[in-house]
Amino acid sequence: MKRIGVLTSGGDAPGMNNAIAGVVKAAEAQGIEVYGVRDGYKGLINGWFEKLDSKFALEIISKGGTVLGSARLPEFKEESVRQKAVDQLKAHDIEALVVIGGDGSYMGAQRLTEMGINCIGLPGTIDNDIVSSDYTIGFDTALNTVIESVEKVRDTMQSHNRAAVIEVMGNGCGDLVTYAAIATQAEIFSPSESKLTVEQICEQAKKFAEANHRSLIILISEKQLDANELAKKVEEASGYVTRATILGHVQRGGRPSGMDRYLAFTAAIYAVEKLIEGKGGLYIGLSENKLVARDIESTLNMPKPDKTEFIEKIRLLNAKISK
Ligand code: F6P
């Protein structure tokens, strides 16, 4: 193999640049050239390729986001659109591809593999919603951003004897909420997998108010409740002056953490090894602290683990009111 490509797809995540760097360094060491694709699958169909080298790799390892750019391209589901990508890759003698992104990106990688271009996927998303990987690239950095933000909000809530509703990203996966709730001891939390109703949240908030608890942090996953509306309801029910904070895209940015850099770089090396072995249609994940390569189809069909019992256990501990 003489030449491979690398692209980032879907929502950007801290650590994607380390994955790109890992691909470049591992391939270069084997005498393989690496071409970066601008703006994900969109760049693939338009031939937006540029040669990357180790000097470039060194320059990007501490940067947030993805230096290659990312885009969502729903049309990639169509075979005629994918054929354009295959034609561009062939015209540039690019034989195989590493795709860094969330599960939305893997079907494209699988279909390209079926069309003769071996592709390997790396799990890049802050959401930690890829069932076949214990952690995804970007989750640790985003989690640390959430923790830091919650602690800042706690400082001011504690000063003013208030409650805060804080909305956290995750796109249907509540891990950012659950992990942050454990790390910050948020009194009430409602992750996507085990949502609380408005009434349940208000009832609990009232109990804290009655016990003269000084400040209250209520963490909720995005896409379940309107944070501002919920804050109003909590205020009415509990008497706490309640403010809402939507953390938003601050969670996607920033320098990648050590753990994200490590996962991204080592998974990238593994992906290049698999491409050299002539494999495609695989997805690299972390399972019990070991990198594993599974076929994409089985990855996408893996059942979601039931997290409710664990969440309930933490919930009871966090909700304990000291007398
Ligand atoms: O998948 C990453 C993510 O940040 C989700 O947590 C969130 O729901 C979504 O992307 C936001 O997407 P956009 O940046 O397109 O608004």
How would you summarize the topology of this molecule?
Blueprint: E1 3-8, H1 16-29, E2 33-37, H2 40-46, E3 49-52, H3 54-60, H4 79-91, E4 96-101, H5 103-114, E5 118-123, H6 139-160, E6 162-168, H7 175-184, E7 188-190, H8 198-210, E8 216-221, H9 227-238, E9 241-246, H10 258-276, E10 282-287, E11 290-295, H11 296-300, H12 308-318
Parallel strand pairs: 1-2, 1-4, 4-5, 5-10, 6-8, 6-9, 7-8
Antiparallel strand pairs: 2-3, 10-11
The structure holds 6-O-phosphono-beta-D-fructofuranose.
6-O-phosphono-beta-D-fructofuranose binds at residues 11, 102, 125-127, 169-171, 222, 252.
Structural notes for this entry:
The structure is a single chain. Helix 1 (about 15-30) runs parallel beside helix 10 (about 260-275). It is built from 12 helices and 11 strands. The strands form 2 sheets. A 7-stranded mixed beta sheet has the order 3-2-1-4-5-10-11, sandwiched between helices. Strands 7-8-6-9 form a 4-stranded parallel beta sheet, sandwiched between helices. It is elongated, with a radius of gyration of 22 Å. It is an alpha/beta fold and about 325 residues long. Helices cover about 45% and strands about 20% of the residues. The structure holds 6-O-phosphono-beta-D-fructofuranose.
List descriptors.
alpha/beta; 323 residues; Rossmann fold; 12 helices; 7-stranded mixed beta sheet; single chain; 11 strands; 4-stranded parallel beta sheet; binds 6-O-phosphono-beta-D-fructofuranose
Write a brief structural summary.
This protein is of the alpha/beta class.
